[in-house]
Amino acid sequence: MAKGIREREFQNLMIQWSIPMDWSFIAGRKLPRETTQTVLATQLRDALVRLNPEVIAGFDVDAVVEEIVATVNAVEGGLVRANEQVLHLLRGHQEFRGADGVWHPLKLIDFENPSANTLVVSDEVAITVPGKTSRRFDLVYWINGLPVVVVEVKSPTAKSGWADAAREINDVYAAEYPWFFTSNVFAVASDGLKLRFGAAGAPTNLWQPFRSTADDEDLAGQADVQRSVELLLNPATVLDMLADFALFDTSGGGVDKKYLPRYPQMEAARLIHERVVAGGSKGLIWHHQGSGKTLLMVFAASLLLADTRTESPTIILLSDRTQLVRQTSGVFTSAMGDAYFHQPATSAELRSLLADDVRGVISTTVHKFADAGKSLSTRGSIIVLVDEAHRTQSARSKSLAGQMRAALPHAKFFGMTGTPVKNLATDTFALFGEESDPGRVLHRYSVSRSLRDGATVPVMLDPHPVAFELDDQALQAEFDQFADDFDLDDPDRETLSRKFGRLTSVFANPERIEAVCQDIVDHYLAGAYRNGLKAQVVAYNREMAVAYTDKLNELLAGFEATQVLAEVGVHEKITAEVNISVSESKDEDPTLRVFALSETEEEEQKRRFLTPNDPLCFLVVTAKLLTGFDAPNEGVLYLDKPLKAHNLFQTITRPNRTWVSPTGFVKTSGVVVDYIGLAEEVQRAVTDPTAEETSKGGGFVTDLTELVAEFRTTFARIEDLLADIEDLDLSVHGYESVRAINSFLDTHPGAAEVFSKDYRLLARLYPLINTDKRITKYQSGFGLFGSVYTTLFKKSSDEDRKERLGELGPMVLEIINAHVHSFAVVAGQEEPLVLDAQGIAVLKELLALVRPKAKNDGEDQAPPSAAEILDHIKAALDKGIEPGSAKYTALAERIKLLRDRIIQNSQDALEFLAEALRVARAIVNAEKHPDETVVVVDNDHIGVLSRIIEDHAPSGLTVTEKNLAEEIDQVVTRTLAQSWDNADARNRGARRATAAVFRRYRIKPVGEPYDSTVAYIEAHYLVD
To answer: Which residues form the Helicase ATP-binding domain (predicted)?
Structure first.
């Protein structure tokens, strides 16, 4: 790929940062390899001889090298399986047959002494095979001749970012040359300002930063990238990742997966391992909720099992819920086989496993330790990793945790929690924390770090208090009359008053249930549903959960809901289902027994909820699934139950997981809609009691009122900025207003940058608060600002627009269509395309005009996709136009007159545009008579009209007219690029496209400059 100088400079910087870490630089063109080869065979051969001095004499080394190269180049089972097999080989676990017929393991890499390996970093590494497009990797890091890290960089000043670099690795390099990635430990993508690493082929939302919890959280920009390079690409880290932290799930039953650790997981797992090896007995891991504690336990267990110093341990993965590591159990079976992973179904089976000193991993719940007895196993090599360590864990001997500790008196206990508890009943710090650890915490990953790293997203608190009127006197009078009628004495009256005067009675009121459920449906359909997100509803008790489910399903089948479903076009119907605990006790309410779910049924329900296109969109709960249920696609939680402390914190973290939808929507925040009025309680629940954190949980929860206030303040700043524009009415969204603002921004240095910055903030806030009535009066002005912003940046490339809109956060379709009138959205047929507002509208017009291609073999081919249409546009623009004519002098004079025009108002600008169109038409007509060829303007990849405007624009012409001219030329390009049935169809299509462009700019498609535009377009394709 072509390199800009700044990109190459950053590439060289990464090399400079790598050399002090013992990487030797060899330019890609000087590597001892052919461009068809994956492995540096000479370096691999030297390493085999150097690292295996005792046995290598009995081998044909060249034959071994050939066998290794063949293994590296084999990808028949898919990249993940091939990667697992090759890393198994690199770890020294594969045996080779010597000349004497004896099998020996051979060391390919020295993990204990990184400097004993041949460490090379190369730039511009080419790879090619016959029949494939040649590719060139920006940087490749080699260990003993094997490519273990591939880096793709973008310039810090380029329009593309790190995500584009990651997609290039996934969609181009790994897709076309997968065998170059079978020995890959991880891939790196960076734009010089941000760096992310991930498994090649993994979705970009799984690519993570690599930092250190010991560093300043505010480290950013190039300093942050340099620090990441020094940490991640240190040979010791690469080898550590290769040896112990690249885990696989290829056990079957699902998609093959490769797991790489986040840096806090890696740090914490190492600390647990080091403590066990050093003879320690406990430790507390405090990581923000939703940041991956379950996978941390898997990494820690893998480290402990692989180390011979831990004396073949038994690792107990403990939870207070079933199937803790169902989603990652395949990691252990892939690595060790089924015999080393155990999930006891009963307490008796658990006791049997421990009594028999079984080794490996046991995944179980604390409840199965009930009545386990004392000293069930006295081994000291039992390590218990406790998930959600603040729950069911106490020092009381009769508690479940107490019984577990009595059964395993010499075991080591490590607790993972996002909400440690310290009260009279439970002290997580004392139970798991080592006194010598700072604050009794072995490792800490804070809320603010988690948010900054993108490991979790912030949660917005949206209060929806439910008001009701109560006439105390009338109620008391009616109750007294009732008691008198039935001749109730005072004790009976008091009993009834206590029983039915509780909060339950208010929650069970049918009118309240309907009001809350209607609000839930309205809120969900207006926002979360349109982005593919799903929702949980937390009801006061089990009976209310059932009642809410019934009411929600009734409303979801109603006319208003079906209208929204038809508009979005994904489901014909969506539903809610209840998930509550139902006991097998004979005292259980018979009306609730029907809602009991078996383990299989519950897993299937959760699977459907996690499936984006499944119609199950609501899970209604009261206690179950509030903790431990990892649903990244949950965007909103409707809370209608009083909760406190860590229970409240656990609940409101449900929507804080990161997620990218199949259509490319990036979840940037979660929402908790609060019907109880828990704002103060929430702030207490999320308060982080460490000195460096804020009193409001490090930015984890934001009250919607704060967002509304920030929106108003930002809007007011823009109003103040534009205050000097005469007669500007922000409620009028039309060409005059857009042009007036553009003219002001053009003539005031720095104003456009200030405007753009504030508008982007508004755009990030708007999707979060668009249903709030307090911002209704701002919607017209916000739409106007959106048109101005779009016009300002219309000339940005598609990549720039993708990056910018990614920063802004996606807008709901209803918001775009209803309020920001210059925007329209259409989905691509093959892949999501992210354009700016006018680009999307143009694309929509194109899709409406394009007909299916000609029949082939008797079958209709599908219409071209959005991506194909854009490719046609780019190809046509790249082709260029070279008009020429003997009439050049006359045309040049007309252009000179254009330059001398004085533009004082928008009408002058439109007249200038009309005249420019007439000149452009004359140029196009002139090129049809090339008896004397004189180049009028240079071929700079834009149309004739755009070039005239660009080169000869008078003062006073704003970016609005320039962008309108560019769109007119795009209509020309699209018209020329398409095959039409006849001239009439072509003319109608061109006129429709032209009219659509004019309407977007709030200009009537009649008179001038519309007539000149049509004439100019016709001049391009009419044949004399």
So the answer is: 274-438
| Helix axis angle, 779-792 to 704-721, nearest 10° | 60
Q: When comparing pLDDT for 127 and 9, which is higher?
A: 127
CA 118 to the chain's CA centroid:
37
Judge whether 387 and 415 are in contact, CB under 8 Å. Answer: no
Distance CA 168, CA 176 (A): 11
Lowest mean pLDDT among 249-258, 379-388, 552-561, 685-694: 685-694
Give the Cα separation of 788 and 10 in Å (integer): 34
Q: How far apart are CA 342 and CA 178, in angstroms?
A: 35
Given pLDDT bands bounded at 50, 70 and 90, which one contains residue 326? low
Q: Give, in order, the Cα–Cα distances in Å from 184 to each of 72, 811, 856, 870.
A: 10, 37, 43, 34
The angle, 0 to 180 degrees and rounded to 10, between the axes of the packed helices 959-977 and 944-952 is: 160
The b-or-e profile of 628-658 (16+ CB within 10 A means b, else e) is: bbebbbbbbbbbbbebeebbbbbbbbbbbbb
Alpha helix stretches (DSSP H) within 486-532: 490-500, 503-507, 510-526
- Strand, helix or coil at 936? coil
Across the chain, which distance is largest between two alpha carbons, in Å? 115
Specify the amino acid at residue 857. D
3-state helix, strand, coil in the chain (%, to 5): 50, 10, 40
* Residues in a beta bridge with 286: 417, 444
Rounded to whole angstroms, the Cα distance separating 390 from 427 reads 8
Contact 247, 335 (CB under 8 A): yes
For 63, the token pair is 């034959």
Q: Do residues 644 and 687 lie in contact, with contact meaning Cβ atoms separated by under 8 Å?
A: no
Which pLDDT band holds residue 508 (cuts at 50, 70, 90)? confident
Confidence (pLDDT) at 805: 36
At a CB cut-off of 8 Å and minimum separation 6, what does 591 contact?
A: none
Is 282:413 a contact under the CB 8 Å cutoff?
Answer: yes
Give the separation between CA 874 and CA 483, rounded to whole angstroms. Answer: 83
Q: How far is CA 11 from CA 6, 123, 153, 199, in A?
A: 9, 8, 7, 21
What local confidence, expressed as pLDDT, does residue 87 receive?
95
For residue 981, give every residue at least 6 positions away whose Cβ sits within 8 Å of its Cβ, in sequence order, or none: 851
Question: Which residues on adjacent β-strands are paired with residue 460?
Answer: 671, 702
- 612: DSSP letter: T
Q: Is there a contact between 822 and 842 (Cβ–Cβ < 8 Å)?
A: no
8 A C-beta contact, residue 601 and residue 595: no
pLDDT beyond 60 at 522? yes
Q: What size, in residues, is the chain? A: 1024
Nearest-Å Rg of the Cα atoms of the chain is 33
Question: pLDDT at residue 821 above 80?
Answer: no
DSSP one-letter string for 217-254: TT--HHHHHHHHHHHHSSHHHHHHIIIII-EEE-SSSS
* Mean pLDDT of the residues in the chain: 77
Q: What is the pLDDT of residues 720-778, one digit of tens each?
A: 999 888 888 888 777 788 888 888 888 888 888 889 888 878 877 776 676 677 887 88
Query: 660: which 2 tokens?
Result: 């990218």
At 396, is the secondary structure helix, strand, or coil? coil
Residue 414 and residue 272 in contact, taking contact as beta carbons nearer than 8 Å: yes
Amino acid (1-letter code) at residue 683: Q
Per-residue CA distances from 414 to 280, 373, 389, 433 (Å): 10, 22, 8, 8
Instruction: State mean pLDDT over 660-682.
Output: 78
Q: Are strands 534-538 and 634-639 parallel, antiparallel or unpaired?
A: parallel
The predicted model scores a pTM of: 0.65
Q: Please give the average per-residue pLDDT across 321-327, as a whole number.
A: 54
Write out pLDDT tens, residues 432-471. 888 899 988 999 988 778 878 888 888 877 878 776 555 5
Taking 80 as the threshold, does the pLDDT of residue 421 lie above it? no
Q: Report the pLDDT value the prediction gives residue 951, as an integer from 0 to 100.
A: 65
Percent of the chain with pLDDT over 90: 30
